[in-house]
Amino acid sequence: MRGLISFAITLAAAWAATAAAAPFAYVPNEGSASISVIDTATDRVTATLKLAQKPRGIAVSLDGSRLFISDQAANALITIDLGKREVVATTPLGNSPEAIYLSADGKWLSAAIEEDDQVLLIDAASGTIAQRIKMRGKNPEHAVFSPDGKWLYVSSEEADSVDIVDLAKREVVKSVKVGDRPRGIGFLPDSSRAYVAAENADTVNVFDVASGEVIARIKAGSRSNGVTVHPNGRRVYVSSGGEGTVQVIDTATNAIVAKIPVGKRPWNMAITPDGRKLYVACGRSNAVAVIDTETNTKIADVPVGELPWGVAIR
Question: Distance of CA 285 to CAs 6, 34, 50, 267, 278, Å?
């Protein structure tokens, strides 16, 4: 696979000494072909995993033993054993893979394949592709599992829509217009609602999952992009790439209750399991901003590689 043999993994000694201390934040840097590993206890990079091509989507197994990366340039899913610090599987995906997500039970990965207009369901244990699901929309970027495992919501960038996949049927059952260039998606923990950013419309669409309909639209800064939900379901965080902020939505009212400056072109994000810290990939700052979710303030900037695309935490 075009250079995948020629990867190298460089890990700092500090990571080896603290490997059992979780959680870590994993950051794909598409401009420098690397993954930065941040210890969330200290907010310092403790390791850098050097990859050959262009890492974008990222997910971590529930037990923290394996790291999954979509390499967009190689059109492949790379699986790394974090204990052995080596690539243990390479799975060809299709043309231009984007975001990948892990199901709540840890059994499945989704991979949005942009140029093929497909979403793949992948067995996380074996790396085997179980299903290729054709989208109704064009250029899927994010394909996110509902926590109850019933649905997959897919943002189709060039169709300005969300394709809703019934996971029991493994097919698209509905397509809903949401606004110009939909991006990130986040579900409430009880799977009752989904929040979908539409970047060029500067809005977040709120879906009632039971009906599959948009029940509210929220103006959420310039170029709304990444979406992350607090573990308690009371807050939704939306990155605004055009103004370098993160908007905080109160899910009881669907009102913006805070706006937090973070850095240049904030993109995809992740929150710690205890909900205390939000990590925001700021692509043009070559850094990850760390937000204290109690005070809604930025408490750190962590330098990483070039053009960080997102974050996964375990």
Answer: 28, 16, 20, 11, 17
Among all chains, which residue has been given the structure tokens 């809005």? 203
Nearest CA to 52 among 73, 36, 67, 38? Answer: 73
pLDDT in tens, 294-311: 999 999 999 999 999 999
- pLDDT of residue 2 exceeding 60, the answer is no
Encode pLDDT of 127-168 as tens digits.
999 999 999 999 999 999 999 999 999 999 999 999 999 999
Go through 156-184 and write b for each residue having 16 or more CB atoms within 10 A of its CB, e for each that does not.
Answer: bbebbbbbbbebeeeebeebbebbebbbb
Task: Assess contact for 204 and 218: CB atoms under 8 A.
Answer: yes
pLDDT in tens, 14-62: 444 444 566 999 999 999 999 999 999 999 999 999 975 899 999 999 9
Residue 182's Cβ-side half-sphere holds a number of Cα atoms within 13 Å equal to: 31
Give CA 152 to chain center in angstroms. Answer: 14
User: Helices (DSSP H) in the chain: which residue ranges?
Assistant: 13-17
Average pLDDT estimate for 267-291: 99
Task: Name the residue type at position 127.
Answer: G
Structure tokens at 242: 């055009």
Tokens of 60: 């971590």
- In the Cβ-directed half-sphere of 237, how many Cα atoms lie within 13 Å? 31
| Cβ–Cβ < 8 Å for 175, 192 | no
- What's the CA gap between 308 and 234, in Å, rounded? 27
Instruction: Tell me the two tokens of residue 184.
Output: 């990130």
Run of H or E residues at 53:
none
Q: In this structure, what token pair is assigned to residue 86?
A: 């080596």
The answer to whether the predicted template modeling score (pTM) of the entire model surpasses 0.90 is yes
